[in-house]
Amino acid sequence: MTNTTTSRTAPSSGPSTDVDVLIIGAGISGIGAASHLKALRPGTSFAILEDRDAIGGTWDLFRYPGIRSDSDMPTFGYGFKPWAHRKSIADGHLILDYLRQTVDEYELARHIRFGHRVVSAEFSSAQGRWTVTAQQHGSRKKARFTARFLFLGTGMYDHDAGFTPKFTGIEDFAGTVIHPQHWPADLDHTGKRVVVIGSGATAVTLIPSMARTAGHVTMLQRSPSYVFSLPAHDSLAHALRKLVGHKRAHRMVRRKNILFTRGIYKASRRMPKLMRRLLIANVRRQLPRHFDVDTHFTPRYDPWDQRLCVVPDGDLFKAISAGRASVVTDHIDRFTKTGILLKSGQELTADIVVTATGLTMSPFGGIRLSVDGRETKPSDTMAYKAMMLSGVPNLVFALGYTNLSWTLKVDLVCEHFCRLLDHMDAHGYTTVAPVLDDPTVERVPYMDLRSNYVLRGIREFPRAGTSGPWTVEMAYERDVERLREGPVEDSALRFTVGGPVPSARPEAAR
Hints:
Number of domains: 2
Cofactor: FAD
Structural class: alpha/beta
EC number: 1.14.13.-
Keywords: FAD, Flavoprotein, Monooxygenase, Oxidoreductase
Family: Belongs to the FAD-binding monooxygenase family.
CATH architecture of the largest domain: 3-Layer(bba) Sandwich
Protein name: Flavin-containing monooxygenase
CATH class of the largest domain: Alpha Beta
């Protein structure tokens, strides 16, 4: 291996401190990147640095009851590895098993270094390489790695801490308060009175699961979210697998699910009033006639201003209809010794309070990036094709869709990344960096969801642009055109064969 080309013939060895591609994160994005490199560029050396002691990322971190996908698995799974389980909306342990199978099939385990938290990454244009510093768990030692390319598969959340608002009097509460991100393994909620604060995806997942054995579970929300029921098992997918085999069925079901989900999203944006009526009618059909749907399941915003919450087989509605769960829409005044006092004067008695109040967004795992000694804040950069950063050489990141399965975007990014490496090898290029030199491009937020966690954290992320390769549209069909089918060469890319990387004019990045 040299600094100017990535070998495609040299045998891949175990984890090294110097590699062609250094992947940060052994979650669904990092494993996807490594699998693509193994399949499309078998001679490329790579290593994966993982902060935790196990693969899986989010799916290993979160251990709360009932954790599951909120996307269908034929599209949330990888395009190169068909989802074989009959469950389409799958439990977390099934997703972890799927990821472990992928690691085994592509022989990735020997490339992973666990217990390495990356704290900084510095690029040298003169050397054409990244120097990455990682803190090793249980040690004061810091490990250093060098790589030609950096692939950030870190997701978009802070794995150390979720978001919990400041609640007055919480220290007075005699029961247990838990955030879902830090679920204790020994918690027994059998027969207990549980209040879950929140109305998002985590809350609607937790409640029906806990309600099976709890004394009663109450969902306490300030305002409702859109909740959409889907079958947990896809009967058509199961029939197709028997009829045409797993691989062909996978392609057909994947396409069907993409078209369905994209259709729901597009209809919601174009005909919000109609979709609002249809979504609320879907809820009303699954609850008792006397239930106050207008108060508890009629949001103030339009569909897809925030992500839809999926409930497989209507399990949340079944728990409510059976009397095992209930919904209260109100504001918290304060915690008391025995529960929560609401603004209305009602008090909810609780043994356990779960603060399903959201996550904290964190760009690229909080890694400190610098180029030639100058620190680069993600918020000062522009996202190129939603996979690279303006002015930052030899770096690719994977952030999935907010309105579709995360992994669909990861697959496209990884494919394009491999094509980019092929192109650079063919021309002997050392570095590549996107450069924003069009002063007419305006800066806009990377994503336009109005969820509270997005509004709190999106300012720290790269910005999107209003035209050209700088747009971030969350549209799978358009990303297929530019990432899978479109050319690698682009006027916004600067390739070099050594020497400093050109940067954008300051006025063009404003």
